Amino acid sequence: IKMAGDFRFPDADTDVTEKNEETEIVVNVGGVRQVFYRDNLNQYPETRLAELLNCLSGGYDSIFSLCDDYDPGKREFYFDRDPDAFKCIIDVYYFGEIHMKKGICPICFKNEMEFWKVDLKFLDDCCKTHLSEKKEELEEIARRVQLILDDLGVDASESRWKRCQKYIWKFLEKPESSYPARVIAVLSFLFILTSSVVMCVGTIPDMQVVDAEGNRVEHPTLDSIETACIGWFTMEYVLRLISSPNKLHFALSFMNIVDVLAILPFYVSLTLTHLGAKLMELSNVQQAVQALRIMRVARIFKLARHSSGLQTLTYALKRSFKELGLLLMYLAVGIFVFSALGYTMEQSHPDTLFKSIPQSFWWAIITMTTVGYGDIYPKTTLGKLNAAISFLCGVIAIALPIHPIINNFVRYYNKQRVLETAAKHELELMELNSAEGKAASSKSEFGDLASEGKEVPFYSSRLKVSHSDTFIHLLSEEKHYRTRLQSCK
């Protein structure tokens, strides 16, 4: 094969005998025949195609260890592999890199590269990114399937306390596991709403009462409702902490930190009210209690635990840090420029409202975001022109990163739905195989595991394993089985 001019692979259907001195091997992959020469293959001697050069001297055992069939008359090696992936992989012998064609499953392509013994480092960076994204999806599907299987099985070797811990954790953390768990989730949601409403209603003057010292405080009934809600939140948090499989991860989780911030102000305020008066002045105690009561607003974030939409929004914003950073940068540059121009242009007016550039920052912020309170406004012609340009630039600066942020939200939301559907489909396939094949196949499979000294999974009586060339490795090291890949598209 010559590298000059228009490049094309030679056709093996041409007269092979005329080029017998040049032709080294003929390869037939899924009906696609290609001719390869020694100089090209020897560039990568560790690959499977390069090994074919020396396998003829080793006899048929050596030949069939590398290929599926061999025709000695044509000196043609046969492989029952994907021809589309093969056409991409052989580019490494001529261009030194590999590009994955659109429509080929990244995981299947990776398996093909491993079969042909071509290192992944030759895969182009754009294709590596696609492959890593697909691997993350598979790991997420495997994790979800593993969590569901853990809920289905009961390990008889565990102690009664360990089983009780798992039951409480599933009862409080997984509403979909049972009807009582759904009831508890709805009840917790109602407590959060009630507590938030009580916090708002307690600030209405007509709903407040005057204490013995003449200060307006919340109505005792509202205080009682608040205490009941805090009691529920406390009990829920303690039970979840006790039953958590990983206490440190539980304590450092963002949503659990929010739970603590929602509960802690109540107990600190209670402590300061009863004991703080002895240690500091009463006015200081009241100010500290009032500041802590404001922190109760954090409990509204507890709704995110029960709302998949809020969770999706949070993750989408985390994925959009780059776009949000661009938005803030655009606004920061515009605020600085237009506030400085506004201050300079308004100095000629005797009644100017622009006293300094830092004070002009406020005017630039409310102008570029099109809020326009009107507390600071330009009075000169140039100042008004500067204001018009500033809010036009503000609209453009805000609009530019919005589309990528929305795309990130839609992409993440759709991805979560696909992963959830894929995990459910995996379980349906496993249940279907379990119903079809119980008896002999199941017995022989787990008999092999037992003969090798491996632990037989505790869920073997309920779900049977499905096998395929492409499979999902579960993340648990204790339970070994494979499932069909449903997420490759």
From TrEMBL:
Transmembrane segments: 183-204, 248-270, 324-341, 385-406
Keyword annotations of the record: Cell membrane, Ion channel, Ion transport, Membrane, Potassium, Potassium channel, Potassium transport, Transmembrane, Transmembrane helix, Transport, Voltage-gated channel
Matching Gene3D superfamilies: 1.10.287.70, Potassium Channel Kv1.1, Chain A, Voltage-gated potassium channels. Chain C
Domain Potassium channel tetramerisation-type BTB intervals: 25-126
Membrane topology: Multi-pass membrane protein
Compartmental location: Cell membrane
Keyword Metal-binding: no
Gene Ontology annotations for the cellular component aspect, listed alphabetically: voltage-gated potassium channel complex
UniProt domain Ion transport: residue ranges: 182-416
One example GO MF annotation: voltage-gated potassium channel activity
Subunit structure of this chain's protein: Heterotetramer with KCNB1 or KCNB2.
Family: Belongs to the potassium channel family. F (TC 1.A.1.2) subfamily. Kv5.1/KCNF1 sub-subfamily.
PANTHER family linked to this entry: POTASSIUM VOLTAGE-GATED CHANNEL SUBFAMILY F MEMBER 1, VOLTAGE-GATED POTASSIUM CHANNEL
Function: Regulatory alpha-subunit of the voltage-gated potassium (Kv) channel which, when coassembled with KCNB1 or KCNB2, can modulate their expression and their gating kinetics by acting on deactivation upon repolarization and inactivation during maintained depolarization. Accelerates inactivation but has relatively little effect on deactivation. Coexpression with KCNB1 or KCNB2 markedly slows inactivation.
Entry protein name: Voltage-gated potassium channel regulatory subunit KCNF1
